[in-house]
Design goal:
binds iron/sulfur cluster, single chain, Alpha-Beta Plaits, two-stranded antiparallel ribbon
């Protein structure tokens, strides 16, 4: 799954690196490096990272900010 981090928004809080260390890593104090094509099995961790980012800098395919996860019960 593809993801993008808006590095203009990212403040280097490292929440994402803590929650999904296979996808995100801090490089130095403030710069973030990440895998823009995360493995599907990272989905859950990635969802937590998306939700935890204090500045909502992470966007991932098929994942919205948690709390806004839209899974229509009728399968739409
Ligand atoms: S949690 Fe958000 S602000 Fe913090 S390093 Fe990750 S993307 Fe940047």
């Amino acid at each position: 799954m593809r993801l993008v981090v808006d590095l203009n928004k990212c403040q280097g809080y490292a929440q994402c690196a803590f929650l999904a260390p296979d996808v995100f890593a801090m490089h130095g104090e403030e710069s973030l490096i990440y895998n823009p094509r995360a493995e599907e099995e990272q989905r859950e961790r990635l969802a937590r990272a998306v939700a935890a980012c204090p500045v909502q800098a992470i966007t991932a395919d098929g994942l919205d900010r948690v709390g806004e996860v839209r899974e229509a019960p009728d399968g739409r």
